[in-house]
Amino acid sequence: MSRFIATSAIRGAHAVIADAEATLKDALQKMGPETPVAFTSTSYFLPVIFGFTGQKITKLGDMPAALQNARSLLPPVPRDNLWLPYLGETLDAGVATLFAEEIIEGIRFAKGQQPEQYNGHKLNGPIDDVQMRSWGIQMVDGRMPGFAAIVGAAKSNEVAVEIVRQLQSRGQLVFLCSQSNGRSIIDQLRESGVDLGYDTFTVTFGTDTYSAVYALGYATRAALSFGNVAAGDIRKILLYNKFRCFAFVLALGQVDDVKYATAAGAINYGFPVIADTVIPNILPSGVTRYAHVVSLPFDDLPGKDDIEKAQRLVQSCVEIRGIKIKIAQVPIPVAYGPAFEGEVVRRENLRIEYGGKGSMCFELLTTKNLDEVEDGKITVVGPEIDAVPDGAKVPLGIVIEVAGRKMQTDFEPVLERQIHHFINGAEGIQHIGQRDIAWLRFSKSAVNKGFRLKHLGDILHANYHNHFGAIVDKVQITLYSDPEKVKQLMEKARPIYSERNIRTAGLTDEAVDTFYSCSLCQSFAPTHICVINPERVGLCGAYNWLDCRASYEINPTGPNKPVAKGRVIDAAKGEWEGVNKFVYETTQMKTDRFTLYSIMDQPMTTCGCCECVMALLPECNGFMLVSRDDYGMTPCGMTFTTLMGTVGGGLQTPGMMGVGKYYLLSKKFISAEGGIRRVVWMSKNLKESMEEELKAVCEREGVPDLLDKIGDGSVATTVEDLLPFLEKKGHPALTMAPLI
Amino acid sequence: MPVEVPVEKWAGKVNEVTLGGNGRKSIVIGGETTLPFLKIDGAMPHRPAIAVEVDDVMPADWSPHLIAAWGDALKDPAVWAKKAAEYGADIIVLTLDSAHPERGNTGAAEAKKTVEKVLAAVDLPVIIIGPDVAEKDNEVLIAASSVGRGQRLALGNCVDKNYRSVAAACIADGHVAIAKTPIDINLAKQLNILICDIGLAPDAILMDPTTGGLGYGIEYTYSVMERLRLAALIGDKMTSMPMICDVGEESWRQKEARATSGVPATWGDHQERALAWEGITGVSLLNSGADIVVLQHPRTIALIKDAISKLMA
């Protein structure tokens, strides 16, 4: 907490309260205590006082009590030798200031001096309830993030106009009040011919700082109408505004004591204060979600002229308040939607391709600091499509840099994998592969409609905001079509990919204290739940632990929830107290224990979408594993489909379970029963398609020749045929401890 | 030999949602602590309610039997609503169909007028349904919301695309939101969570799990509803909202209710068949946990009313 700000704010609060006391005394003498007091068409009385205390002020005579209340909140002005932290006191002083300001405005209403007449115009004054409710709905449904309360005057009329335009374009309400050096932003906008009023989302409050209290009256009423909060429940009112109303104060020009005091009142609501002059910063988060007070001296802002500086100022305000961006329509010249995802661009219609055989194409998404990314910046380095002949094959590098307060490097691969899905949504554009084997094909019709490389950037920018807005605040994209650049950057990307692989491989169950659940399949298997740990993918193979973690960050009410491991019950079988509790609660109390590494003792339940089913073959002292795309008979006497009917639907069947095929490669693969050594038969196609990986696992487990000893459909489809094969090959399962 | 009846003790309870009030008749929906009509295990304090559909424009594609039954009332939603009340409706469902971009594209002003008219014509609780286009829904439902402020209407449908606006209007004007999801227990629960998260109280939410007519997925619907109800009874607060089912619309649009020619003789009389379709769909859904059934034909109103009385006895 800045001592300077605290002192100024508290000093300002003393001044405002003294003013209110004098004004009230005079009004009571001249007009009497029965004189009615009311703001414009509102049923919330003087809303800040009503919200904080529940007190309904309807006449001058009600005011002394409220003002006394304000006085009692007022801390002494810090002495020169006092060095305590002052946050609490300053916030109290802020509240006292708001009370006093509201009382002064109330008296002005009683005197007929509000809404203010100024330079021949009538200012709006406080917002009436009907308008508050209408905007409130837009605030709740997200069309309108919140409001910007602008206090003072901008550097010039042009800057004032640009600031307001920028705010309007983001759907932010603009409240205008106060002045700086005898100028008000209200003058500046009016002189520039800007239309001010409810229709343009701009509201003129007044030309002094007191009228800024109308902004907080609005915020208070929004919480009372939309937050299910009762008057007087101030904690809830303030929290509602902190988390739901994306408002901030923008102080233009010099900040005096009264402005500091009023700003301190606003900070109570979680509204940060940004000044375009040099003032101390209060950067730690706390009462506000991020920084409390930020100084962005206008002339020091980046930008080639004042207009750009103004744009940057608003962009920074938006970031400081944490306002998220939504892009309703992907701005590209071709149709966009899931219908085009499976589309293939055939040779006859091929205009240009990037990557593929004999060429290069890579895509890389990395995290940067918030100040290193310019949101929406899309750059093409190298030739655009127009410069390239029909049917040409060109190299491409898609480099995406994202920044976000909740972004984690672990999410990079999760986000990067979405490129495929995002780009394929565009009509006439085909995307295949990922990382350094990506391959894009643009159709003639898409290019004829005006689709260019840079539109890939538009697609990605819009989609990352819309789908991952919870973790991504800013996205910039660079598209490299210059062969030298692509080559150079691809070489730099490769170590990043391999580092990610290593990190994923190195993620162990022991290293984390939280697993994630997946309840997606409960729609058809209501008593099934997946618990996904770093060393075991979901049985559908589609979700790993990192995916679930990212999914939870993005959509906390969605199908993936954190599961605290809790106390270990059995480390070898992979049983935890926390997991059991969670499983019990989420399987409609049908399953009360779950082991993660055992198939014989309380294995995981199975839904209906597992990649593979495992089943015990008692005669072989091991397990068989059949994959979904193997239609043949298996040694247990059942095909995949029949097995699925036995094991699926949320059942827990000791000796049988569904698994994702990559679980086979995990160190935790049925480790309670002895791991891969227990596999005596598996589908031939699986054995072949995963040969390299399986060989590596066998080697790691100390049985390098195991793969040759595992039977498949070409060797046996009955136990009678399988057993002699295993004996001949000397399969290790036969000599392991009996399973039954 | 005495037989001991096994009694299930449920921990949960379906929320009680009040519609109407403030000068208008009020009705309480939900409140069950047992599966439908199974009084051994718990209580069913309120009868399931019968709601009757009233459209703001004459329906273009309705069966001649429906048109004959309602007659000229179809031309004026206020008259129609009055007639529905006479036939025994507990609730009026006003559908602002004319706001659909392809069926008139009327806006907030027309919606306000229609809602005012219907509210003035009947003293029953009223449900307002938009034209099922998220953007237009927002426009007309928010207008309807302000007209009916304080009368605790139900506004629908809240779907994943527009739930925020509709829920916000419900909070601002004291209404109940209808959360509609496509036959999926997870989605239903998630939408309830999201709506509560905005700040609407759980007892101001009804859910429409989306239903199919008899022969058109009713068994799937039945099972999803049953599971939602079981989850509520087990104690899951986010599935404890009473359910509303659009029985009339789903039944009357099916082939069996529409086809008049080229069907086997054994299908029988067209009108009786169509009525049976609506009736059986309605009774089935009541048995799977519906708290409000929305009907279209006057005769079905009587039929379902009778069925409810017998099941409640």
Residue stretches of chain B low in confidence (pLDDT < 50, at least 5 long) are: none
What would the CATH topology of the largest domain in chain A be?
Answer: Bifunctional carbon monoxide dehydrogenase/acetyl-coa synthase(codh/acs), Chain M, domain 5
> What fold name goes in the CATH topology slot of chain B?
TIM Barrel
Unreliable sequence segments of chain A: none
Strand order of the largest sheet of chain B: 8-7-6-5-4-3-10-9
Quote the beta fraction of chain B. Answer: 15-25%
What number of structural domains do the residues of chain B give?
1
CA distance, first residue to last residue of chain B: 27 Å
Main-sheet strand order of chain A equals 5-4-3-6-7-8
Q: Give the full name of the CATH homologous superfamily of chain B.
A: Dihydropteroate synthase-like
Question: What's the story with the biggest beta sheet of chain A?
Answer: 6 strands, parallel
Provide the residue-averaged pLDDT of chain A. Answer: 92
What is the radius of gyration of chain A computed over CA atoms, rounded to a whole number of angstroms?
33 Å
Structural domains of chain A: how many: 3
Number of DSSP-assigned strands of chain B: 10
Assign the CATH superfamily of the largest domain in chain A.
Bifunctional carbon monoxide dehydrogenase/acetyl-coa synthase(codh/acs), Chain M, domain 5
Order of helices and strands of chain B: EEEHHEHEHEHEHEHEHHHEH
- Write the CATH architecture name of chain B: Alpha-Beta Barrel
Oligomer: heterodimer
Structure in words:
The complex is a heterodimer of chains A (740) and B (313). Chain A has 740 residues and is an alpha/beta fold. Chain A has three domains: 145-210 and 231-260 and 267-321, Rossmann fold, CATH 3.40.50; 338-502, Bifunctional carbon monoxide dehydrogenase/acetyl-coa synthase(codh/acs), Chain M, domain 3 (2-Layer Sandwich), CATH 3.30.1650.10; 514-735, Bifunctional carbon monoxide dehydrogenase/acetyl-coa synthase(codh/acs), Chain M, domain 5 (3-Layer(aba) Sandwich), CATH 3.40.1470. In chain A, a hairpin with a 6-residue loop joins β14 and β15 (439-443). The radius of gyration of chain A is 33 Å and the shape is elongated. The model of chain A has no long low-confidence stretch (mean pLDDT 92). Chain B is 42% helix and 17% strand. Chain B is built from eleven helices and ten strands. Chain B has helices at 64-70, 77-87, 108-121, 134-147, 163-173, 185-198, 218-234, 247-252, 255-258, 270-287, 298-312, and strands at 16-21, 24-30, 49-55, 91-95, 126-129, 154-158, 176-180, 205-208, 243-245, 290-295. In chain B, α2 (77-87) runs parallel beside α3 (108-121) and α7 (218-234) packs parallel to α10. Chain B is globular and about 65 Å long. Classes of the chains: A alpha/beta (740), B alpha/beta (313).
